[in-house]
Amino acid sequence: MELLKRLCETPGIASREDPIRGVIHDELKPLVTDLRVDALGNLIAYRQGQGGPRVMIAAHMDQIGFMARHIDENGFIRLQPVGGFDPRTLVAQRVRVHGQEELTGVLMPATKPTHLLDESERGKALQLDALFVDVGLSGERTKELVPLGTPITFDRTCNDLGDVMVSPAMDDRVSVYIMIEAIRGLGEHNAEVYAVASSQEEVGLRGATVAAFGVEPDIGLALDGTLAVDIPGSTEADRVSKLGDGTAIKIMDSSLICDPRLVAHCRNICDKNDIKYQMEILPRGGTDGGAIQRTRDGVPAITISTPTRYVHTVNEMVHKQDVAATVDLVRRFIETAHEIDLSWK
């Protein structure tokens, strides 16, 4: 899974997707008929079909991260979050500061060391605005190398642990990988395929919104991760999905209720082809499917998810068999999209 590793380790926070867009462009170029980049930075790849329905596949390429918001006289960098974070997972992480030169920094809270805390200070909830980055340089040198707005991402690699892969930015680079591999393995298809590596999903589904308006799809298929809450401290009712139980066919999340005709089609594909799957309802959180669904005069849309543990941390974990099952489902969805009856009864 060398491609997945490369995708996960290439930086690209929302609105600063240039590096990751370049990698995706090079992978898709030999597989498609045409490639273009729109005004919001979406990479839109078109693969010609035989006059069938226009199917838009969206996998967001942006990752959560930070921008440099302020640098004080001592060179400490204050942060503007770009995407959602749990402050509990951030303390003492190493980061990459993508300035005039790439710098390594440490992400720390503006608080006294634990040795010096009194009882009233212990156990207080950490707030995001208390965090700063230290790159070990003077204030003058840091300001020279790190203009305001400089992207900051986590300095972690993508690791193969046998059955699973662990990495920051697995959300949603695993879906970009799935989209590429599904297109690579396509057989004959009638559908006119528009594969979109969407921008700015983590800050409000912005890229998919404008991409769908331009593509005008007949069918929308979003690819994303979903919560695998199958760990100690959770209940069966909280599970959402489970690692190793197959691809997840979404029923609904905060941004959309998936088209029941497409849900039924996905289940039928899995049943006919022995693809392991699970059904998913995500109580909170949205996907590009919600943006596609509400473009122009409406688009039948669905999201297919990859179960992921520890979402929005540096240790996002996916199971290789779930990834393979999702690739298989997406490929077969495209190949059979012309068979879907989208009339209302």
Structure in words:
Helices cover 26% and strands 28% of the residues. It is built from eight helices and 17 strands. It has helices at 2-9, 18-28, 139-145, 170-184, 206-215, 260-273, 288-293, 320-336; strands spanning 34-37, 43-47, 54-60, 65-71, 77-82, 93-98, 102-109, 131-134, 151-154, 159-160, 164-167, 192-198, 219-227, 247-252, 277-281, 301-308, 316-319. Helix 4 (170-184) packs across helix 8 (320-336).
In short:
Helix content is 26%, strand content 28%.
Characteristic terms for this protein:
345 residues; six-stranded antiparallel β-barrel; globular
Q: List SSEs in N-to-C order.
A: HHEEEEEEEEHEEEHEHEEHEHEEH
Total count of strands = 17
For the biggest β-sheet, the strand order reads: 1-2-12-3-13-16-14-15
Structural class: alpha+beta
| Separation of the first and last Cα atoms | 44 Å
Which regions have little confidence, pLDDT < 50, spanning 5+ residues? none
Biggest beta-sheet profile: 8 strands, mixed
Assembly category:
single chain
Q: Determine the strand fraction and express it as a percent band.
A: 25-35%
Coarse morphology: globular
Give the helix level as a range of percent: 25-40%
Supply the number of helical segments.
8
Report Rg: 21 Å
What's the average pLDDT? 94
Topology readout:
Layout: H1 2-9, H2 18-28, E1 34-37, E2 43-47, E3 54-60, E4 65-71, E5 77-82, E6 93-98, E7 102-109, E8 131-134, H3 139-145, E9 151-154, E10 159-160, E11 164-167, H4 170-184, E12 192-198, H5 206-215, E13 219-227, E14 247-252, H6 260-273, E15 277-281, H7 288-293, E16 301-308, E17 316-319, H8 320-336
Parallel strand pairs: 3-12, 3-13, 13-16, 14-15
Antiparallel strand pairs: 1-2, 2-12, 4-5, 4-9, 5-8, 6-7, 6-9, 7-8, 10-11, 11-17, 14-16
Helix pairs in contact: 1-4, 4-8
